[in-house]
TrEMBL record:
The lineage of its organism: Bacteria, Bacillati, Actinomycetota, Actinomycetes, Mycobacteriales. This is Holin. It comes from the Bacteria.
């Protein structure tokens, strides 16, 4: 069986999306009251909608077709392909 050289973000998109949303949510939790005041948001559903959009964008970025497009046109934004330890030593 040939090794799967796709980045882990593409091989496990749901894990990547959940991790990104979790990191974003946890990092913003202490600032949510100030963000809501600054944006004149008085309702929790607006904050939930922002997190949902973040989750959707994160999920789209893990699609293989999007990853290929990023590698072709914006390589600095694409995920690094997995490179096993034994391959690193040969380089």
């Amino acid at each position: 069986m040939a090794p799967d050289n796709r980045p882990t973000q593409v091989r496990r998109p749901w894990r990547t999306m959940v991790r990104s949303v979790f990191i974003g949510a946890v990092s913003l939790l202490p600032l949510l009251p100030q963000i809501a005041d600054a944006a004149n948001i008085d309702e929790i559903p607006a904050v939930a909608a922002i997190l949902a959009v973040t989750a959707a964008v994160s999920r789209v970025l893990t699609l293989p077709a999007v990853e290929e497009w990023l590698q072709a046109y914006i390589p600095w934004l694409s995920a690094d392909p997995y490179q096993g330890q034994h391959r690193k030593e040969r380089s």
